[in-house]
Amino acid sequence: MSAPADSARTGRAVEEVLDRLADTGDREVCAAAEELVRVLMEFYGAGLARITARLEPAALTPLLDDELVSGLLALHDLHPEDVHTRIARALDTLADPVELLGFDETSGTLRLRAAASGGCGCGGTGDGVRQDAEAALATFAPEVTTVELEPAGAPPQPLLQIGTRPQAPVRVP
Questions:
Q1: pLDDT 10s digits, 98-141
Q2: Per-residue pLDDT tens digits for 28-63
Q3: Does 56 share its domain with 109?
Q4: Can you point out the beta strands (E) in 6-139?
Q5: Distance separating alpha carbons of residues 64 and 41, to the nearest angstrom
């Protein structure tokens, strides 16, 4: 196996290995493998925390554009930028522009709208834009677990308000 280039790819590779072990049906081996991953994550996270604590904030700033470093910092909850800043950073890397409609921190759902193409017909497909956004977000903002993409030019969802009709004043004779 070649060295994974980013945190998302590494996470998938670890999950695949754990799944293969789970398929053997040996619960002790599975538990030991999960424990090994947890211990190593804690060890490397502690080392990374020490490194970042000893750096001046200005020395860390240029590293935040590096997808691998940014992904590791986010994975270990050491990233100095808040989730909204990291989401914006991830969306800035996309070839096809998108409009941020909102992020639900509780569910991890990010709502986007594909930007209207310039009429040339060269805008990305919805699936391609969503996949590109998911890949960028996995690196910069792993808190985003779901991306919902509205097509370009989609009208905003109307707010439906249901209520009772105001009653006419009652006249007392």
A1: 999 999 999 999 999 987 655 454 545 577 888 889 988 888 88
A2: 999 999 999 999 999 999 999 999 999 998 898 888
A3: no
A4: 98-104, 109-114
A5: 20
111 with 121, same domain?
A: yes
* Residues 90, 64 share a domain: no
Q: Which secondary-structure segment (H or E) carries 109?
A: strand 109-114
d(CA 123, CA 118): 8
Residue 127 within a domain: yes
Pairing mode of beta strands 109-114, 98-104: antiparallel
Q: Which two tokens stand for residue 89?
A: 């950073």
Q: Are 14 and 35 contained in the same domain?
A: yes
Cα(138)–Cα(142) distance, rounded to whole angstroms? 5
From 99, 98, 115, select the one nearest 153 (Cα to Cα): 115
Q: Residue 55 belongs to what domain range?
A: 1-80
Contact 81, 90 (CB under 8 A): no
Residue 35: strand, helix, or coil: helix
User: Which pair of tokens denotes residue 140?
Assistant: 């910069």
Please give the model's pTM, rounded to 2 decimal places: 0.67
d(CA 110, CA 88): 11
- Sheet containing 98-104, strands listed edge to edge, beginning at the edge strand earlier in sequence: 98-104, 109-114, 146-150
Place of tokens 């554009």: 65
